[in-house]
Design brief:
About 50% of the residues lie in helices and about 10% in strands. It is α/β, with parallel strands linked by helices and about 375 residues long. The strands form three sheets. A five-stranded mixed sheet has the order 1-4-5-6-7.
């Protein structure tokens, strides 16, 4: 067999594995690096020479930046905005994407860039705050398991077809295989397994559901339901998670608007019942109040500066010369003289541990706590 035939065979195998998503992309790349020298196509030195290429290092760094944008919610927020504006028009989506990538400044807000930066950052960070806050609250119950998602859940065409003909109440007990090739996937913000109820819960957390069009929310609900049908099989195959008998979905609306359970939209006040923790909703609401207080501390001096009013607050921590927003600072607990900074667990802690009843409360009323959660991505 000629070298060219071997190269084409390896290329076809790599393309097939990339398309199937199994194994992971980085594993496929390493397999090709090993396979080429083993087949004698190139030498070991030639195979490893690529790692010293600056372009390879740049691409690796871009993966890190991309993952950071996904974890902080920036990519999700931008993607939701683009889809809501573009609708079903591919041409409109391409044009909007080009405009966003170009980063052209908005002429309407010339002179107010210093104010807009923290506002835009605040909305993104607040979404991350809700997600990480709920994750921290779930840790109050030992029988709640947070399942990490390395890969999104598959959305099968068969599941969509079944949901078009049946109500969710009839479909929730259905179990479909997850090892089926599909081009559509869905990644929930949180996947929670309740070991006591043998139930899995897919959570999609929105800062405000009202900012999304009804058809976008309807499509989101359909994707969540379709993904839920393969979740039981996926948990058994891919994760070391407890067995579940049913999978439920919930779109959490953090704005405080009334719930619409028929559309799978749950208010923040429903959180206690959803995850079985008394005081969960109040803890998240208190966390948002702390975040809002810190945000006002940052915005007030900037508003005064733009308006030309003297006597701006000295609490502003951002440097206008660097363009930082002041929201990306990490809470370290040193400014208030506290010697127990390590006790702040995402602004939320377990209350009444050992009493057999899970409760969530805000541990300390410090306005920086919630900012720290958002900027740290929920790390404790």
């Amino acid at each position: 067999m000629s070298d060219l035939s071997i190269v084409f065979m390896l290329l076809a195998a790599a393309i097939a594995m990339f398309a199937l998503g199994r194994p992971r992309m980085d594993v496929v790349a390493l397999l090709m690096v090993v396979a080429l020298p083993l087949t004698g196509i190139i030498s070991v030195q030639e195979a490893l020479a690529g790692f010293s290429d600056p372009n390879i290092i740049l691409i690796a760094a871009l993966f890190v930046v991309g993952e950071a944008l996904v974890r902080t919610g920036v990519a999700q927020m931008l993607g939701d905005w683009l889809v809501s504006r573009a609708g079903r028009s591919e041409a409109r989506l391409i044009v909007l994407l080009m405009i966003v990538v170009a980063g052209k400044p908005d002429p309407t807000f010339v002179g107010f860039e210093e104010l807009l930066a923290p506002i835009r950052s605040a909305t993104t960070l607040e979404g991350a705050l809700l997600e990480r806050g709920i994750e921290a609250v779930c840790s109050c119950r030992d029988d709640l398991v947070m399942v990490p998602l390395e890969n999104p859940l598959p959305v099968l065409p068969e599941a969509r077809a079944f949901l078009r003909r049946n109500e969710w109440s009839k479909a929730s007990g259905l179990r479909l295989g997850s090892e089926v090739h599909t081009r559509e996937f869905y990644r929930p913000d949180l996947l929670v397994v309740d070991r006591s109820l043998h139930r899995a819960l897919l959570l999609d957390i929105k800062r405000s559901v009202a900012s999304h069009k009804p058809k976008v929310l309807a499509e989101l609900r359909t994707r969540m339901m379709a993904a839920a049908l393969v979740t039981r099989d996926w948990l058994e195959r891919e994760c070391d998670a407890p067995p579940v008998e049913r999978v439920e979905i919930a779109i959490i609306d953090g704005s405080g608007d009334p719930a619409d359970h028929a559309r799978a939209i749950f208010a923040l006040s429903d959180l206690d019942q959803l995850i079985g923790i008394t005081g969960a909703a109040k803890a998240i609401e208190a966390l948002r109040h702390l975040y809002a207080a810190r945000l006002r501390e940052i915005l007030l001096p900037r508003c005064r500066s733009i308006a030309g009013v003297a006597g701006g607050s000295g609490n502003q921590r951002s440097d206008p010369g660097t363009g930082t927003t002041g929201l990306d600072e990490r809470f370290d607990g040193r400014d208030d003289g506290s010697d127990d900074a390590g006790g702040v667990i995402g602004g939320i802690t377990r209350n009444g541990a050992g009493s057999g009843k899970a409760e969530a409360t805000v541990l300390r009323h410090d306005a920086r706590v919630s900012v720290g959660i958002a900027s740290l991505g929920g790390r404790t």
